[in-house]
């Protein structure tokens, strides 16, 4: 199983503590082993086969759609704890900037999440925000300014719950969106517009 970078950072401590704990305090050892295995499972990074055209979902999860101040359309994907948390490029493009903004850690599905910590990946045609949630503490971008990304290519991941929002290019309108609020999507595979 392929794992997202950083999986070992979070999994090794509980797994290492589980071994001696199994001999000293078996219930604690079992709990630590289970926690370490959960962390490895959470950071899974499966292969995906994407479509040849369209804007694909940047994350696994449930969809929200809204029009923003400048009239453009933002499609958000809330990642539940059971979803894959590796994020993918919605379209091909050249990365113009990767900006980190410190902030709060409110639930990613709430309106208060606008002030949450985030990494914004701006390309020549769209913006992708990786947003930390209540339990997410690390956003790991994989790209840098100047990188060329393909549709569905891995661009980062958020550890432990989050949301990914894609601000569609200006030529897309609400009528072009192919998913509805509450739909479940898969990163790099589901066409959202």
UniProtKB/TrEMBL annotation:
Any single Pfam family the record assigns to this protein: PS_Dcarbxylase
Gene Ontology terms describing biological process: phospholipid biosynthetic process
Top-level division of the source organism's lineage: Archaea
Molecular function (Gene Ontology), one example: phosphatidylserine decarboxylase activity
Alphabetized UniProt keyword annotations: Cell membrane, Decarboxylase, Lipid biosynthesis, Lipid metabolism, Lyase, Membrane, Phospholipid biosynthesis, Phospholipid metabolism, Pyruvate, Zymogen
InterPro entries recorded: PS_Dcarbxylase, PSD-A
NCBIfam families recorded: anchor_synt_D (NF038088), PRK05305.2-3 (NF003683)
Name under which the protein is recorded: Phosphatidylserine decarboxylase
Native species: Halarchaeum grantii
